[in-house]
Amino acid sequence: MRYVVGVDLGGTKTAAGVVAQDGSVLLTDQIPTLNRDGGEAILDATAAMVRSLIERAEAQGAVVDAVGVGSAGVINAREGTVISATDAILGWTGTAITAGLTQRLGLPSAVVNDVHAHALGEAWHGAGEGATTALMVAFGTGVGGSFVVNGQPLLGHHFVGGHVGHFASPLAVHQGKPLPCSCGHAGHVEAISSGPAIHAAYLRLGGSAALPDTRAVFDSARAGDDFALQVIAHAATAAGQAVGGLINILDPAVVVVSGGLADAGELWWDTMEAAARVELLAPLASVPIVKAALGNTAAIVGAASLVFAK
Question: Which residues share a beta bridge with 235?
């Protein structure tokens, strides 16, 4: 059986695993991302972890012949480079990921944005397995997504496809003004429906400053805090409207919803799904909306699939 290493390179941690051609994960490892040290240092550390995994796999009789990467940032998947990145990873913009890893490891490599990698994993061996088209939308620290068609993510002409948190939401307003978004614009889906947006709304609308984060807002809601329940419902409704609108546009076979909010339970999920279904055109009423299944290994498996697909 063929084996490759899949890498999930994020702003705070980099995880990797040896993935078999049947999608099973043989070994995993994780290191902090050297996000203040620049691109070359990050590639050095990543290559060292991959090399260690390759040696461990060989000890079990598994020979790794390539590397697939899902990376934070806007990624030119054709050239294997970082087009742009936030300050979460300093010096990442312009980094030649595939060339750098191939030089260090002597193995062919491929790269795509990490959210696309996550979606590829779910489409291959997760909640979207078997579907010819799968839309993944992730609600967590930010809002992102990917549309996978026959095992390939829709990357877009400028490799920016999948930024589903950055179109207008009618609920992303306060006192008649659009809420500021992390992208520098205002009134977007992410500005009202991300995890941090829920905590910000709770404080903005008069909630207790004693609740330090979004998790605390959910805990308070579960304990009977009606105000916290209303804030969460408002954000979940905005999320559902966005999901429903995307279904109307893309007509996917299945929708996979992931991220920390998707894992928060019925409190968020039921409102989100109900709001999504209200938006749907009649022929789309039965489109499945399901929770992601692979957890932390999704992007590793998806990154590996980049190589297997070739």
Answer: none
Cβ neighbourhood burial of 86 (10 Å; 0-12, 13-18, 19+): middle
What sign does the dihedral 290-193-163-49 (CA atoms) show? negative
Distance CA 120, CA 114 (A): 10
Q: Is it the case that residue 102 has pLDDT exceeding 80? A: yes
Pairing assessment for the beta strands 254-258 and 133-139 based on DSSP bridges: parallel
154-188: pLDDT as tens digits:
999 999 999 999 999 999 999 999 999 999 999 99
Count CA atoms closer than 13 A to 84's CA, side-chain side: 5
User: Residues 272, 257: contact at Cβ < 8 Å?
Assistant: yes
**Class of residue 175 by CB neighbours under 10 A (exposed 0-12, middle 13-18, buried 19+):** exposed
Residue 153: is it exposed, middle or buried by C-beta count within 10 angstroms (0-12/13-18/19+)?
buried
Distance CA 8, CA 185 (A): 28
Q: For the chain, first and last CA: distance in Å?
A: 16
- Round to whole Å and give the CA distance between 187 and 167: 8
The three-state secondary structure class of 129 is: coil
Continuous segment of H or E residues that includes residue 73: none
Nearest to 272 by CA among 298, 296, 297, 247: 247
Instruction: Give me the pLDDT at residue 86, please.
Output: 87
Model confidence at 44, pLDDT cuts 50, 70, 90, reads: very high
What is the rounded distance in angstroms from the CA atom of residue 101 to the CA atom of residue 119?
23
